[in-house]
Every structure is written in structure tokens, then in C-alpha cells.
Amino acid sequence: MFILLCDKKNDKILYIYIAIYIIMNSCEWYTPKWIFEKLGIEFDMDVCSPPNGEGTHVPAKQYLSIDDDGLKTPWVGMVWCNPPFSTCKPWIEKFINHGQGVALCPVSKTRWFDKVVANNNIDIEILPSTLKFIKDGKECTVRSPCCLLHFK
Description:
Layout (H helix, E strand, L loop, with lengths): L10 H14 L8 H7 L3 E4 L13 E4 L15 E3 L6 H11 L2 E6 L4 H8 L3 E5 L5 E4 L2 E4 L4 E6 L1
Parallel strand pairs: 1-2, 1-3, 3-4
Antiparallel strand pairs: 4-8, 5-8, 6-7
């Protein structure tokens, strides 16, 4: 992130840079439809959803958006979790504690991912390197390898 200090005459420039930063760093990258077709599951909850599941293909009965705060709201039943990749740790820890669902996350050299690998109740399915998420209605290449986590 960068900070641009300016005087009153240049406030418009500051607002433009802030808008560009927000757009470029959005966490709104949606899972492609083929993953849900492959899974063939209807979820009880999408715990990291845009409002009302708009723009996603997640077959869920309930959607928790940023306003609902999926980390504080209790999870019920079979959950879908595609957390912001910049803050996976608390989401995956809650996913493991919940014990029922499917999560999509990056393959990572981190302690939280080591806990996933060590958990005998979770199957890890590495996704193809050609995986493309949906961002602003367009397919976008993912920057890191991804996997699906399934409870056995």
C-alpha cells in the first residue's frame, strides 16, 4: 500500500489513487462453476460470500457476507469456505474446528497449512494449475497453487 500526501488542490488525485488501490486489491475472486458441478453438493452455508451470494455459483441455503462476519457468526452444517487468500489462517482454523464442509485455499508454506496437512480427517485435492477464478465477471488466472479441503 502507498500513501500519497497532498494539499487541497490535489485531493482529487488522492481519491483516484485510493480507488485504484481498492479495485486492484479486492478480495472478490469467485470460484468457477465447474468446481461446484464436480462436487455435486448443496451447502448449508457459504461463509465468505458477497451479499446474498450475488455473482457466485455457490449452491448454498445461506450466505454470510462481510457484513455478517463469518468469523464471528456460528457455522451450521455443511459449509463452503473460499476465504480471502490474504487472511486464510483464521478462516481455515474455524473450518477445521467446525469439522464439516469443503474449503478452497492456496497451497502454502505456512503453519496453518501444515496443520491442514497433519489433520487425518481432511483430504487435500490439488486443483489444476489452469484454475481461473471469476473477478468482475471475467476469468482471471490464480497466482498460487490451490487446493480443495474435504472432511472425510
